[in-house]
C-alpha cells in the first residue's frame, strides 16, 4: 500500500516536472516569437513598408519646362509646344517586343522605329522610360490611351517640345536643341539626372547651348501606383520642379527679319550694334536654315542639302567667318600712325598708282593713281599707296596694337558657337606661327587689310562702334535672364587722342558725302541722319603681272568662288552716333556697289524703327529703293509691329 502511494507521488512529481519544462519551453518560444514580431512590426516597420511600397509605387522625374527666349521687345523667338508621345518601360512591360508589335497594330509604327526602340531599351536601365513615338496626333494618342490595359509598360504622355516660330531669322544666333547624346554626357562632369531621360532635349549650338544652365530649370518628380504587371493605376503625389529662366535678347526681331530678307540669296553676314551700349540689334548670317528641322529630327536628305550648299548655310558667318577686312582696315593703320606721331592729318603722300619696295611693285586700286593725298582724301578715295607709305613709318607692331585696341584679333565673349578671334598679326605672331621673320611686304599687305589679317563681321562692327564712340564698347547679346537685367559691359575710354579720332571720323564722313567718296552713291539724304562709312574689297586670289598688264579680269567674269569679298562698315548719325553696321558679302565684288547699299538700308531701319522712309534716300534713287522694298519678303509681325509705312 505504502509502495503504491509512493509510486503515485513520484508519478505526479514527474508529470509536474515535465509540465513545468514544457510550459517553460512554450513560454520561451512565445517570448521569442513575440520579440521577433515586435522587431518586424515595430522596430523594422518603416523599412518593410518601404520594401512593400516599392513593389507598387514608382518615382519618376518630371522634365522641367524649358525657359523661353524673346527679342528685345518681347516677341517670342524660342518657345515650347504641346507634344503627344508614348513611352515604354522595360521593367513594367515584360516582353517588350511583343508589346511593341501590339502597339504597332493600334497606331502606325514603322519597323525601323520598333528596331530602334528595342536597341534603346537594351542600352538603358530597366526602369528608364523610352520614347517610342512623339508628335502624335490627338487621334493616335487617344487610341493608345483607350487600349492601355492591353499594353503593359506603355504610357501615353503629354510633354513639351521646342519650337522656333521665327524659324530662319534666328537660326544662327539662338541655335537649336536636340536629344542628349553620349558625347554630351561625357562633356558634363556631374550630369543632372534629368539628362538621363530618353530624348530629353538640351541646347546644341548658339544661345540654346551656352545658356543651357539658365534655360533648363530643375526637374520635379511624381509618385505613381502600379499594379502587379506594372500598369499605372493612379498618381499618388506630384512635386513640380522649377521651369527654366526666360531670356530676353538685345536683338530686334523686325530688324533681324529685315536684314535676313535684305541679304537675300547672298552668302553674307551683317551685324548692327548700338554704339552707346554695345547691344547687338541685328546679327544675321545668310543663307540660313530652319532650326525646327533639327528639333524634330532632320532627315539625311535635308541635312545633305545643307552640307552640300557652297554658301554654307550651317555656318554662322557673323562670328565664325574670318575674312580679310580689305580697306575697312585703313582706319586702324591711320590711327596707329597718328598716335605714333609719324603723320598729321595734313601729311601728304604722292600716289602714282603704285608703290615700290626694292624690285617689287605694290599697286593701288586706281591704276592711274590719286596724286598727292592727305588723310581725309586718302580715306575718302581709299588710296592704297598712302597707307603703304605710312605703314612703313609706323611699323606692324603698332598697327597690330591699335587693331586689338579697336576690337580686332580678340574673341568677344558672347553666348554663341565657335566665335573666332581672327588674326591680328605682328612680328612675334609670324615667328611663332611660321618660324619666319616679318617682311616689309607683310606690313604693306596688312596696312590695307590683306595678307595675314583676318576679321569677323562682329569684330568689324565693334571696331566701327569704338571709332564712333571713342570708348571700348563690348558687344552684348543677352539683355535679361529671368527678371534680372544683365549688366552692361564696362566701356572705358580708348585712351586715344580725341583730335585723331575726329580726323579719322571726318575721313569716313567724306567716304559717304565727299565729292570723290567711294561710297557717295549710298549716302543718306536726311541731314539729321548723315552717316560715315568705309568701303572694302578683299582679294581672294593673286593677280599676276601678266594679267595686270593686259587688264585685270572683272569680278563678274570670274567663277563665283574666285571673286572679291565685298565689305562695308558705317555708323550714324555722324554728329551723335547711335548705330554701327558691318556687312560682308562673300565673293560679292566691290564693297561700294554691293555691301554699302545693304548696310545703309539696315542702318536706316534701326535708326527709324522700321522700313526706312524714302525721304532718307537721294531723290534719284527713290524709285529703285521703293521697288526693292516692295520685293522684300518680310514677315508679318501683326498689329503690334513697330514697322512704319514708307513715307
From TrEMBL:
<keyword id="KW-0645">Protease</keyword>
<dbReference type="Pfam" id="PF03717">
    <property type="entry name" value="PBP_dimer"/>
</dbReference>
<keyword id="KW-1003">Cell membrane</keyword>
<keyword id="KW-0378">Hydrolase</keyword>
<protein>
    <submittedName>
        <fullName>Peptidoglycan glycosyltransferase</fullName>
    </submittedName>
</protein>
<keyword id="KW-0573">Peptidoglycan synthesis</keyword>
<dbReference type="InterPro" id="IPR036138">
    <property type="entry name" value="PBP_dimer_sf"/>
</dbReference>
<dbReference type="InterPro" id="IPR017790">
    <property type="entry name" value="Penicillin-binding_protein_2"/>
</dbReference>
<keyword id="KW-0472">Membrane</keyword>
<keyword id="KW-0133">Cell shape</keyword>
<keyword id="KW-1133">Transmembrane helix</keyword>
<feature type="transmembrane region" description="Helical">
    <location>
        <begin position="20"/>
        <end position="39"/>
    </location>
</feature>
<dbReference type="InterPro" id="IPR050515">
    <property type="entry name" value="Beta-lactam/transpept"/>
</dbReference>
<dbReference type="InterPro" id="IPR001460">
    <property type="entry name" value="PCN-bd_Tpept"/>
</dbReference>
<keyword id="KW-0997">Cell inner membrane</keyword>
<dbReference type="InterPro" id="IPR012338">
    <property type="entry name" value="Beta-lactam/transpept-like"/>
</dbReference>
<keyword id="KW-0812">Transmembrane</keyword>
<feature type="domain" description="Penicillin-binding protein transpeptidase">
    <location>
        <begin position="269"/>
        <end position="603"/>
    </location>
</feature>
<dbReference type="InterPro" id="IPR005311">
    <property type="entry name" value="PBP_dimer"/>
</dbReference>
<feature type="domain" description="Penicillin-binding protein dimerisation">
    <location>
        <begin position="62"/>
        <end position="236"/>
    </location>
</feature>
<keyword id="KW-0121">Carboxypeptidase</keyword>
<dbReference type="Pfam" id="PF00905">
    <property type="entry name" value="Transpeptidase"/>
</dbReference>
<keyword id="KW-0961">Cell wall biogenesis/degradation</keyword>
Amino acid at each position: 500500500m505504502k509502495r503504491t502511494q509512493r509510486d503515485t507521488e513520484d508519478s505526479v512529481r514527474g508529470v509536474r516536472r515535465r509540465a513545468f519544462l514544457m510550459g517553460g519551453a512554450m513560454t520561451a518560444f512565445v517570448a521569442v516569437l513575440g520579440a521577433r514580431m515586435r522587431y518586424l512590426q515595430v522596430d523594422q516597420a518603416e523599412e518593410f513598408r518601404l520594401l512593400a511600397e516599392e513593389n507598387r509605387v514608382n518615382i519618376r522625374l518630371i522634365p522641367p519646362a524649358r525657359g523661353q527666349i524673346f527679342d528685345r521687345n518681347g516677341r517670342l523667338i524660342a518657345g515650347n509646344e504641346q507634344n503627344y508621345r508614348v513611352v515604354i518601360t522595360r521593367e513594367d512591360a515584360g516582353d517588350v517586343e511583343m508589346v511593341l508589335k501590339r502597339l504597332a497594330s493600334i497606331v502606325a509604327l514603322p519597323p525601323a522605329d520598333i528596331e530602334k526602340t528595342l536597341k534603346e531599351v537594351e542600352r538603358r536601365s530597366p526602369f528608364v522610360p523610352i520614347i517610342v513615338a512623339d508628335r502624335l496626333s490627338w487621334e493616335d494618342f487617344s487610341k493608345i490611351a483607350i487600349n492601355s490595359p492591353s499594353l503593359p509598360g506603355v504610357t501615353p504622355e503629354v510633354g513639351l517640345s521646342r519650337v522656333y516660330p521665327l524659324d530662319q531669322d534666328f537660326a544662327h544666333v539662338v541655335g537649336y536643341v536636340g536629344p542628349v547624346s553620349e558625347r554630351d554626357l561625357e562633356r558634363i562632369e556631374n550630369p543632372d539626372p534629368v539628362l538621363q531621360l530618353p530624348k530629353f532635349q538640351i541646347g546644341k549650338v548658339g544661345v540654346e547651348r551656352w545658356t543651357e544652365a539658365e534655360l533648363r530649370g530643375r526637374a520635379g518628380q511624381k509618385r505613381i501606383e502600379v499594379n502587379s504587371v506594372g500598369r499605372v493605376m493612379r498618381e499618388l503625389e506630384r512635386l513640380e520642379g522649377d521651369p527654366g529662366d526666360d531670356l530676353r535678347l538685345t536683338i530686334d526681331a523686325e530688324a533681324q527679319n529685315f536684314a535676313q530678307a535684305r541679304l537675300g540669296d547672298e552668302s553674307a553676314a551683317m551685324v548692327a550694334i548700338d554704339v552707346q551700349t554695345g547691344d547687338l540689334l541685328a546679327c544675321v548670317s545668310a543663307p540660313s536654315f530652319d532650326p525646327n528641322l533639327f528639333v524634330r529630327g532632320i532627315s539625311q536628305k535635308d541635312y545633305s542639302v545643307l552640307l552640300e550648299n557652297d554658301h554654307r548655310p550651317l555656318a554662322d558667318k557673323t562670328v565664325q567667318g574670318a575674312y580679310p577686312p580689305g580697306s575697312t582696315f585703313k582706319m586702324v593703320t591711320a590711327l596707329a600712325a597718328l598716335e605714333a606721331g609719324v603723320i598729321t592729318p595734313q601729311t601728304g603722300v604722292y600716289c602714282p598708282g603704285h608703290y615700290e619696295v626694292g624690285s617689287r611693285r605694290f599697286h593701288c586700286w586706281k591704276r592711274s593713281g590719286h596724286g598727292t593725298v592727305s588723310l581725309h582724301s586718302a580715306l575718302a578715295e581709299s588710296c592704297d599707296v598712302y597707307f603703304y607709305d605710312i605703314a612703313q613709318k609706323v611699323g606692324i607692331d603698332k598697327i597690330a596694337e591699335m587693331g586689338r585696341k579697336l576690337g580686332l584679333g580678340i574673341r568677344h565673349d558672347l553666348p554663341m558657337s565657335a566665335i573666332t578671334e581672327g588674326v591680328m598679326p605682328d612680328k612675334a605672331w609670324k615667328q611663332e606661327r611660321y618660324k619666319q621673320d616679318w617682311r616689309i611686304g607683310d606690313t604693306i599687305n596688312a596696312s590695307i587689310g590683306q595678307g595675314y589679317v583676318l576679321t569677323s563681321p562682329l569684330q568689324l562692327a565693334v571696331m566701327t562702334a569704338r571709332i564712333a564712340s571713342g570708348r571700348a564698347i563690348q558687344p552684348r547679346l543677352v539683355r535679361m535672364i529671368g527678371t534680372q537685367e544683365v549688366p552692361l559691359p564696362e566701356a572705358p575710354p580708348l585712351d586715344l587722342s580725341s583730335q585723331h579720332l575726329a580726323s579719322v571720323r571726318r575721313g569716313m564722313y567724306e567716304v559717304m558725302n565727299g565729292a570723290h567718296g567711294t561710297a557717295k552713291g549710298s549716302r543718306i539724304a536726311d541731314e539729321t541722319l548723315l552717316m560715315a562709312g568705309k568701303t572694302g574689297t578683299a582679294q581672294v586670289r593673286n593677280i599676276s603681272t601678266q594679267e595686270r598688264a593686259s587688264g585685270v579680269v572683272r569680278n563678274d567674269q570670274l567663277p563665283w568662288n574666285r571673286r572679291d569679298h565685298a565689305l562695308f562698315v558705317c555708323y550714324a548719325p555722324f554728329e551723335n552716333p547711335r548705330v554701327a553696321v558691318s556687312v560682308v558679302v562673300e565673293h560679292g565684288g566691290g564693297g561700294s556697289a554691293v555691301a554699302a547699299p545693304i548696310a545703309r538700308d539696315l542702318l536706316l531701319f534701326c535708326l527709324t524703327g522700321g522700313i526706312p522712309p524714302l525721304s532718307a534716300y537721294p531723290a534719284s534713287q527713290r524709285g529703285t529703293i521703293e521697288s526693292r522694298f516692295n520685293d522684300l519678303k518680310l514677315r508679318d509681325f501683326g498689329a503690334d509691329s513697330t514697322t512704319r509705312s514708307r513715307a
